[in-house]
Amino acid sequence: MNLNHTNKIRESIQSLMNESLEVNSNTPQKYWYPLSMVSYDIEEILEAVDSLCSFQTTMGKKTLQFESKFAEINNCSEAIMVNSGSSADLLIAFALVNQQAKLLNKGDEILVPSVTWPTQLWSLMMAGLKVRFVDTDPNTLNMDLNDLENKIGPKTRAISLVHLMGNPCNMDRVLAICNKHNLILIEDCCESLGAKFKGKPVGSFGIASSYSFFFSHHITTMEGGMIICKDESLSDQFRLLRAHGWARAAKHIEPEPIEGIDPRYMFLNWGFNVRPTEIQAGFGLEQLKRLPTFNSQRLQNVLYFKKYLNQHSDIMRLMEVLPDAECSWFAMPIILTQDCPFTKDEFLAFLEEKGVETRPIVAGNLTRQPVCELYPELQEPNLKGADIVHERGFYIGVHPFEAKKNLDRLSEIFEEFIKNKI
Ligand SMILES: Cc1ncc(COP(=O)(O)O)c(C=O)c1O
């Protein structure tokens, strides 16, 4: 965009944003401590305007640039942007059973977490894989690795891992289990962009990994997602699946000309259309620049609030992070202890009334959701850890900005309730 114009546009947009901020600050809000806050600024909006004004709105150069920067920070050679984290999960699942990739066969068993966002499972089921739930460690909120090993049977071929709430799993142990039993590993990193295990980014351990850029995530493209992997031919399967199975969507495949087939409309496989827009990719490019500051601010806020929470460790505890892990805190998940003198429901009702937005830890024990009655494979008894998370777990937001004052107010609210109960 022409710089003279950009400066004028910048001023106009800034004044529109200031107006909205003023309107918002004069409008009573239900929550003074919401789950998430707007994390984009004028640079992201200018990128969007630039795409619109240059008539470059469908997937193109900015998407390629965003993909390449994203791959670089995650130690992977290939990144494929899509329109949501769920679409990323969907393409990974379909690529696994794809005629061309042939990594898994329909009907193969894949072990999945019992506490996670459900599209991680739906995608695998839609692709014809048989999911089996593994129990959850109520301290880390990730898969219970002892139960994982116990659940491995003759039909098990793969593991679909999640690093929930930004908390890296013990990847030494997961990889040892995969090697011992010859299992394929995929990672759902939709809640863990920037997290590391022993200095290595999560998502770079398995054969493919998914990310989400929904509004409340570590970076946002409004809606959006990404797949990363290291294998060129697998990455092209994702590109075909992303765009109709269309030959020209591939980056590394050079299809032979076929008589009677116009190369512009050649289809190599089946596929969806889950492409992102340039507007989303432009947003992402700007957001990636902010990611290191966002994540370190999130960490500082958690550590600050943890100092307060530690005074009540007999009543409630923050999610535990392994010594070798760097958590990219997605939120502040808290588990009430068994001896806690009040119920989760009464505490959450109090917080909500005081303007603190709360949530259960995603879907809780997934087997308790009504959808599981529809599918026999989703019925799994004895998920004791997932039950603890379901019954005693909840989360509040953690924001990517300096928040000491708000966190002080939050601890006062916690204290007011706790004092009345003990
Ligand atoms: C673990 C996990 N997987 C998948 C998704 C789906 O991402 P999206 O909302 O972008 O579809 C989410 C969304 O929050 C998630 O938390």
Describe the structure in your own words:
The chain is α/β, with parallel strands linked by helices and 422 residues long. Helix content is 40%, strand content 13%. It has helices at 3-26, 42-53, 61-73, 85-96, 119-126, 145-151, 171-181, 232-242, 278-309, 344-353, 384-392, 404-421, and strands at 78-82, 109-113, 130-134, 156-162, 184-188, 196-197, 200-201, 208-212, 225-229, 316-318, 325-326, 332-336, 393-396. It has a seven-stranded mixed beta sheet with strand order 1-9-8-5-4-2-3, sandwiched between helices. Strands 7-6-11 form a three-stranded antiparallel beta sheet, with no helix packed on it. Strand 6 and strand 7 form a beta hairpin. It is globular. The model has no long low-confidence stretch (mean pLDDT 97). Bound molecules: pyridoxal-5'-phosphate. The site of pyridoxal-5'-phosphate (PLP) has 15 residues, from helix 4 and helix 5. The site of pyridoxal-5'-phosphate has 15 residues, from helix 4 and helix 5.
